[in-house]
Design a protein that fits this description.
Layout lengths: L7 E11 L2 E8 L3 E3 L3 E2 L5 E7 L9 E8 L4 E6 L3 E3 L15 E9 L4 E5 L3 E3 L4 E10 L4 E10 L12 E10 L2 E10 L2 H4 L9 E8 L6 H13 L7 E7 L2 E8 L2 H18 L31
Parallel strand pairs: 1-6, 5-7, 6-9, 7-10, 8-11, 9-12, 10-13, 11-13, 12-14
Antiparallel strand pairs: 1-2, 3-5, 4-5, 13-16, 14-15, 16-18, 17-18
Length: 302
Amino acid sequence: MDDHSGWCASARLQFSRRDGITRHQGGASAPLKLMRAFPQASGHCELPLLHTAGGLVGGDQLSLQARLEPGSQALLTSVAAQKVYGTVRRSRCHPQGRWAAQELQFELEAGSDLEWLPQELVLYADALFEQQLVVNLADNASFLAMDVVRLGRTAAGESLGGGCWRSGLQIRRPNRWELVDRLQLEGNALAGEHGMAGEPVFGSLVWASPQPLPTEQLQQLLNQARAARNNLEGTMACGALEQGLVARYRGPSSQAARYWFCRLWALIRQARGLEPPQLPRVWPFQENPWTGLDPAALNCSG
């Protein structure tokens, strides 16, 4: 990667639980901005982040660090979809293009719970973007993350072209790795059957459970997750981790990916005995991703 001479914005957050309520403190540098926090019925402190620059260009770098004290619960999201503009062959000085990057570091202490639920990432033609996410969590902490990425503005007849998307995820418990996941989508991987097979939308969800699930409960959760694909277009698959699960989406629709992941989110909340999820207030969707599911199985609110 080349030097970062664009915007370098960062946010540092700390969540603590007092008198049964999770509150946050910390700050952010422009163009990142912390918005008003909301309490969810589950006890999660819902905190939206706004990127005021309107998108990322080559050389831009975002950094987010969050620490959750024992027993705290937080839901971090973004106010809008994040756009990444193309740079390959756009400059005589950098004909190979320049990378935009995002680095995330989360520290989860005993009994804490973090849900990282950003809105969609949209890569324009010839955009270069890399994300690194590192999570260190206590044995009885819970971490849930979802990402939905659109590779090119397909509504405008655009593909990713000469661009590239990279992702690195590391989740570590005190004495072991929970998951190390590295992905790269570009070139032949966009068209190949073992890559995107020509589809424009990729999605990933991972849940690191606060404790190992009994075999029967885990299998039931996986069966429910597969059944939740009902009436959604695209290819969807999920499987077990040593202590949790991972799910993937490949297809034409960011809405379908979002719907499925929201359904998994509800199933995970249910398996943990928590209140059903509420869609973050800053999400613009007027849809109900839980439509079509058995209302006796899930009781969720938009």
